[in-house]
Design brief:
Elements: H1 2-14, H2 20-39, H3 50-62, H4 67-86, H5 113-121, H6 129-142, H7 146-150, E1 157-158, E2 163-167, E3 173-177, H8 180-190, H9 209-222, H10 231-246, H11 249-256, H12 261-264, H13 266-282
Antiparallel strand pairs: 1-2, 2-3
Helix pairs in contact: 1-2, 2-4, 5-9, 6-8, 6-10, 10-11, 10-13
């Protein structure tokens, strides 16, 4: 069973071009299922039943695993079993009998434009100041996932045309405009930077996700922002501000690199939220607190 999981993850990498983080998540989920199946004396995938999978899901619920995470577990399991069916190693996918838990849609935390400027204007006495400013400018300018940012190389930047080439989820490449402020920040950063990777750490290696998370969190606190700021909030802010200005959901979808427009539609709720706040504040017939 372990070997079949390894083969499945290899299939996701080679055939489906899944992102590395997705591959790791699927592998973790399936290995956790495998450990559970050992306690149930299930020694092959052909012995697996919907009832056993239900017990596994119940165990996750008892561990207070969120509905969103349980949906991901089910996605991993269904994908694995479908793969085995297609490989003629299994007759049917019993996971399709399971009900997918509903999740309450939560609006992502966002920053307003003034807060973004606050984080950028916070000056740090560090030789990495120009790098850090460039990182924030690029994430906000291009609405990047932090995993996309750390994978950038200097060759992906086209200053003359004002575009950035990004390798997104599923190995899909997209080209996005690079704002003038981000261009200036990159040019300044490259004055003292000579590596293939666009952003590196103090050891000269490609910078990691955790380093960027810590840097942005600290700059936000130093700028006087009292909430926990993480890199994805800059992506949310970029998407929201882009949609509010363009009123074009399809363009926002392309900007973010979303495979489905359903992923982008959450920003219409954020846009409406701001509209309702302005209405309550300004309209003469609005409810006043």
């Amino acid at each position: 069973m372990k070997k079949q999981i390894i083969d499945f993850i290899l299939y996701l990498k080679v055939e489906r071009h899944y992102a590395l983080n997705t591959q790791k998540a699927y592998e973790r989920d399936l290995n956790q299922l495998l450990n559970f199946l050992k306690t149930q004396d299930v020694s092959s995938w052909t012995e697996l039943s919907a009832q056993t999978l239900n017990l596994f899901i119940m165990q996750l619920r008892h561990q207070n695993i969120s509905a969103r995470s349980i949906r991901r577990y089910l996605s991993s399991i269904k994908g694995m079993l479908s793969y085995l069916v297609n490989q003629d190693q299994l007759k049917d996918n019993c996971a399709v009998q399971l009900r997918t838990p509903k999740i309450l849609q939560t609006l992502p935390g966002i920053l307003n434009y003034e807060q973004v400027l606050q984080i950028l204007k916070t000056k740090k006495a560090s030789r990495f100041e120009s790098r850090d400013v460039a990182i924030i400018e690029v994430i906000y300018s291009c609405g990047l996932r932090v995993s996309e940012l750390v994978g950038l190389n200097i060759a992906d930047v086209d200053i003359s045309q004002g575009f950035l080439t990004i390798l997104g989820k599923g190995g899909k490449t997209r080209h996005t405009p690079l704002g003038s402020s981000a261009q200036k920040a990159i040019i300044k950063h490259l004055e003292t930077h000579h590596s293939n990777a666009l952003f590196v750490n103090k050891n000269g290696d490609r910078i990691g996700v955790r380093s960027i998370q810590n840097m942005i969190k600290k700059r936000a606190l130093d700028s006087g922002i009292k909430i926990n700021v993480y890199p994805h909030m800059l992506r949310h802010a970029a998407a929201t501000h882009f949609l509010q200005s363009s009123h074009d959901l399809r363009s926002t979808q392309e900007f973010l690199g979303h495979a489905s427009i359903k992923s982008t539609q959450v920003y219409t709720h954020l846009d409406f939220l701001e509209l309702s706040q302005v209405y309550d504040r300004c309209h003469p017939r609005a409810k006043k607190s």
